[in-house]
Amino acid sequence: MDFDEITRILEMMREHELSEFELERDNVKLRLRKQGSGHGTVAPAYPPPAHLPVPAPASAGTAAAPAAAAGPPGEDTELAIVKSPIVGTFYRASEPAAKPFAEVGDVVKKGQVLCIIEAMKLMNEINAEIDGEVVTVYVENGHAVQFGERLFAIRPA
User: Does domain 64-156 have CATH number 2.40.50.100?
Assistant: First the structure.
């Protein structure tokens, strides 16, 4: 089971308004539960066995969505909101002493790494979905993020 399969399952859960999903396949048991439907957040019930292939780094994929900007009065701008595709720990740089991947005011290109989210000891790169300027970073470095939580706001170029 790879990251793309889990992402498709999560999309199916949203589409069909499922609050819980369980799958057992190839000695892997995956249980997903929506936040507010019982005991917590969307997360695997058991870590995958060590012999499974490591998933490729995550892309922001479907994480960018337009939202109304809180800009100056009279300015009718749209911002793309980059949301977390997974639950994990948010890191702005590849290591503690390194320069952040993206700062407020930086102009980013589609596909450029914005941050890393660590999930189950895997480092997942989150990429920009559009060209534009970073106007907001919503999460503090080293803080936990939930699935669908806002990470960045980007003003399209």
Answer: yes
- Exposure b/e, 3-39, CB count within 10 A at least 16 = b: beebbebbeebeeeeeeebeeeeeeeebebbbeeeee
* CA atoms of 69 and 82, how far apart (whole Å): 13
User: For the chain, which residues make up each domain, given as ranges?
Assistant: 1-55, 64-156
Q: What is the pLDDT of residues 17-70, one digit of tens each?
A: 777 777 777 777 777 777 654 444 444 444 444 444 444 444 444 444 444 444
Q: Is 86 helix (H, G, I), strand (E, B) or coil?
A: coil
Average pLDDT, the chain: 76
What is the pTM assigned to this prediction? 0.53
10 vs 86: CA distance, rounded Å? 10
For 134, list phi and psi in degrees, rounded to 5. Answer: -70, 120
CA–CA distances in Å: residue 16 to residues 11, 31, 58, 93: 9, 16, 24, 36
